[in-house]
## 1
Amino acid sequence: MENNSSLWSDAYRRLIQNKAAMIGGIVLVVLILCAIFAPLIAPYSYSYQDLNLGASKPSWDHLLGTDVMGRDLLSRILYGARISLMVGFVATSVALVIGVSWGIVAGYFGGRIDSVMMRIVDVLYGLPFIIFIILLMVIFGRNLWLLFGAIGAVEWLTMARIVRGQVIGLKNQEFVLAAQAMGVSNFMMFRKHLFPNILGPIAVYATLTIPQVMLLESFLSFLGLGIQPPMSSWGTLIKDGVESMEEYSWLLIYPGLTFTITLFALNFFGDGLRDALDPKTSSD
Amino acid sequence: MLLIFLKRVLAAIPVLIIVASLTFFLVRLAPGGPFDSDRAVSDEVLINLQEAYNLNAPLSEQYFDYMSGVIVGDFGPSFRYPGRGVSEMIFTGLPVTLELALYSILIAVLVGIFSGVLAALKRNTLLDFIPMAIAMIGICVPTFLMGPLLVLIFGINLEILPVSGWGNLPGDKLLPSITLGFAYAAYIARLSRGGMLEILGQDFIRTARAKGLSERVVVTKHAMQGGLIPVVSFLGPAVAGLLAGSFVVETIFQIPGLGRFYVEAAFNRDYTMILGTTIFFSSMIVFFNLLSDMAVMFLNPRARD
């Protein structure tokens, strides 16, 4: 653990050798680039309607066809990637910030603070969060940032548990004791000594949280409680696809395929990262 | 054992009170009243409506009224469907949702454990790879995509199964149950494979084999009891997921269950209905978590500390 560079280079080597993880990683990079450069790549605007055309099968003009309102499906999927991936990253970051701070504080101080903080986590675990998010979306309107915050606020619990466990393992090691003896402030202790040493598990768990968050967002959008038109996430596109799948099956199949491939890529990459960074805990 | 159980039940009560209070106040925080979206009603009617639903009383009084109703199982009247109580609606939808959840969990447990145990026993053969690949699909294809795809294939293209409904046509319960159960079958398969692999490597299994027990007895009597503990502890949280899944599945297949009521209530801003169903769902989730924890304790002596 002290020899940080070799931990990461070992992990890097293991990751490179894992074919499934590498393919997943490449797919992700391509997707992220597509999402960032969507306005440049997309052949049409996501809201451009060609009402005379209506729903058309995939053709040279519209590679993945058009929807009922004559909007280019490929463009909508590309723009949808922005929303879906952004939800994935932003909500995961929210979860990370809360979870890591909570876990470090609980684990480091221990004692009564720890038991109170973890008790809160236990109680929150028992709550039906999906129902609460639906409730929030209903009450406060379908606001994108609220969605990010609400999803992030749900997913931090496991993170807090993992981080706490790691910190408890670290806090009696010599370098932490030495830093304490030198009078390092709590904040510097967290930032300089504890945080860098638990980066591995955090990275792993973050990668595995992103697909869950994206699933949650698309689930809400599917129910009509997430992203509102004319903006579209992949969940909205799948919902639209379902409504017209009897006549225009491509409207369901292509967004569904994109979403599934992305989730595959994220899961494979996350699993690979876990195996690489933490060979011991790689279960199932 | 009994003591732990009682302790857990007592610990669950404050959780439920928190849920109920939080939901109650969140709903009151909502901008706009429940009658806003109706066709314009005169002030007089509005005042009468508010009077009828006791919305003018002080918040604390409303809160205590509501909570004391909840304790005896009365969730108040529905805002949207005058004359119908929320409790009454919950109990019309509940049997349908429970039946759907039961079939799904049966599919998930039977298919999941069978393929997981098989995969662990035949490690690194096709009998391991193929079920695990299918399980990965089950985890990555969300319910709201799986359902429509199954409908598209079996209902619309092959025309062998009904595309919607519940209990009206023969076989119409099959697609919803498979849709909801598939993802859980996938998780259970992975969990039981992992659990079995861990147990099969332990000394007591070698001893059992060494004393000449048949492979069938070793697997069913010795390995599965420990190897399936992860599955049992997964079942509690899975109920929460199943309920969320039922929102989607009941919407896709137009099943008149509790999940669809909830989604409809959310759209109609039927606040008492939302409040009632939320509290009801939460109690169910807390109850099933408790049940699966107790089952794990029963199966695994090490967890009883």
## 2
Amino acid sequence: MSLLTLSEVTKIFGGLVAVNDVSFEVEEGSIVGLIGPNGAGKTTVFNLITGNYHPDAGDILFDGKSIRGKKPHAIVEAGIARTFQSIRLFPTLPVLENVLAGRHCRMYSGLLACMFHTPDQRREEKAAVERAMQELEFVGLADKINEEAHSLSYGNQRLLEMARALASDPRLIILDEPAGSMNDPETEVLIKLIQAIQKRGVTVLLIEHDMNLVMRVCEKILVLEYGALIAEGPPEAVRRDPRVIEAYLGQD
Amino acid sequence: MSRQNIFSLIYAQRGILLTFVIAALPLFLDRYWTDVFVSVGMYAMLALSLNVILGQAGIFHMGHAAFYAVGAYVTAILNTQMGIPVLWLIPVAGAAAALFALVVARPIIHLRGDYLLIVTIGIVEIVRIALINDIFGLTGGANGIFGISRPVLFGYRIKTALQFYYLVWGMVGLTVLCFWWLSHSRFGRALNCIKEDDVAAEGCGINVASLKLAAFVIGAFWAGMAGNLFAAKMTIISPGSFTFWESVIVFAVVILSGGSHTGVLLGTVLIVALPELFRDFADARMLVFGLAMMIMMVVRPQGLIPPMPRRYAHYLPKRRQASAKGDAA
């Protein structure tokens, strides 16, 4: 069974149909890319999945259960973590705390336990810090734990966002332009990282304009144009699809 | 020992030092100044509780006097009408204020910044006017409530300024300890995340609405307890003690403080005790106050003492602790 299913999802902003009757499936354990020209509605699709927007029609199933209408934090709890297109870290908090923020929804200490610093709370805190460190080692930022997030380079900020997302134990991670503002060597690191995420058993859904990255890592590609899905399939097939070529290069 | 070491020792032991200073302070104060510092202590409790809401979660809440009033009036009513000892009413006053906060904050919690600020100003006015109008026939109207009994602790009746000084500052100490731990937990971290970027906080799994509400409830609980102490100290309370102006003072303390607990204590002393020194210039108080605020905004916009970064070195595995040294500096 597929991990994520969108069925006939539509989102309308005023008179603009931003996402038009889109249906697709993301298989568990795969890496799926969502591409399309600017303004095609890719980020809107992501925001629909993560609960920032609610669909006007259609349904979104995660692991067989509808997540339509749930709040973003509840969707993270359900197992979908995300990164943002425009980096959204907590700029003045240290790197480690940014990752701990992602761990928050897997921690259970209540208000009183926090206030009275109970042994259970301390144990949980220690485990959370250790887990956050593992994620920082995973993305390669373990030597920067005390730096404020805004002082990192853009490439590292993207990696930090990924570490934060991974800290919430997601089954599906949604990356919105992970290679944005990265240079070539950084993108190479990112490609390895995305593959490593898949090896951990986490499903990846990503939006990316860097075709080199998309063609190399994705097993399935979805192409969106004017809010509608125009092609779907493995990279080689999508690359040769005349409708995709037309959407990207225009018609003569 | 180098000078640097001495300073870092003072810094590390600042809690103990501060405790000694506060404990010894009445030795150097006359009755009048002891009284002033009792009220500093009560304002400090209020400001510390507002700090959770305003300083840590960044919620612009200017109606803290409303929760203070609920705590004071619940204490006064239950004490004068049912004869329940004042100290027993501390948790009751807190719980009543927290419940009130839950009810009034629930519908407005999604408002942002200045919109929320306006509504919270409304809350404090509504409470004050309700009290003046003798709501439910319990609050005694504009005259307030008389004859609240003194607290009795282990058989000792607390009535002098000095006794109140230790009662109030004992509560402040407890408050600092609880809120220190709170700010060093997932709760405090999450509030800071909300303050920095609430969309990102929600997007990484933090339940923003319920945490903001929790901040309100916990802040109100403490404000209610401060209200209890106020009622016990004054033995007479009236709506005039819970005006919008009280909220503004506490708000100003928190903004001025920079958000750390030490900063809040220092800010309270500056804003509540310092004007007592300059009684002769009482007419110019607002002028000085405004000028001081403006100078702060220009010279030190982050506030007097911003909170230190939380430390995690003791949670890290040994081999990491070396690399995390910067943490302890």
